Amino acid sequence: MKTLKDVISLKFKTSESEGVIFHGEGQQGDYITLELKKAKLILNLNLGSNQLGSIYGHTSVMTGSLLDDHHWHSIIIERHGRNINLTLDRHMQHFRTNGEFDYLDLDYEITFGGMPFSGKPSSNSRKNFKGCMESINYNGNNITDLAKRKKLEPSNVGNLSFACVEPHTVPVFFNATSYLEVPGRPSQDLFSVSFLFRTWNPNGLLVFSNFAEDLGNVEIDINEGKVSVHINVTQVKKNRIDISS
């Protein structure tokens, strides 16, 4: 497949921070790879390099963050020659590829959700995508529909299910005035708490608890984007411990 124009679009959701979303390569050295790394989206593209090394076509663009939030995210890649529009959740980024070539020359399969082991160092260090995709469209072909109707040959490696598993975790959303109060454990000299959180706000109280018998309290908060732990103990001379990260 030697193309001057490409339009690739899909939606995905995952709780994994790493994984190859799709990949294609050719014997001329051309390739296109879209993957998650550290919960960011990275597009690697090469329309060709030459043997002398004077033309270096590798181009890498990063966009987005916190994409492992198990929410649907939409991607559109529009290419015309070296001009690329990469759109993630309606935020468009325009760039031009390196090198001097305009055609993407792929003579192997396009793979979605991972990449075949090629023996190259780049292939075995990458994780396959784990999560859900829908509305995969590659240059006018509805890939998800073709895969479901088994019209692709070869269509899949491993087990594909045409349903999306929901996560077992249940998130809680807090506004500026709400909080959650749970009973403490009496006669326990151990205080242990763990949780995951996400917020755009630089300040806010995360956890607060009084110790029994007026022995003090513990407070965990965000202050100017840093998490701080404050432990107040009334019976000790150095009665306050502050930890910040």
Explain this structure to me?
This protein has helices spanning 121-124, 143-148, and strands at residues 2-3, 5-13, 19-25, 31-37, 40-46, 59-63, 73-80, 83-88, 91-96, 104-105, 111-112, 132-138, 141-142, 204-210, 216-223, 226-233, 240-244. It has 2 domains: 2-149, Jelly Rolls, CATH 2.60.120.200; 169-244, no CATH class. It has 2 helices and 17 strands. The strands form 4 sheets. It has a 6-stranded antiparallel beta sheet. Strands 6-5-4-3-11 form a 5-stranded antiparallel beta sheet, with no helix packed on it.
At a glance:
By secondary structure, this protein is mainly β. The chain has helices spanning 121-124, 143-148, and strands spanning 2-3, 5-13, 19-25, 31-37, 40-46, 59-63, 73-80, 83-88, 91-96, 104-105, 111-112, 132-138, 141-142, 204-210, 216-223, 226-233, 240-244.
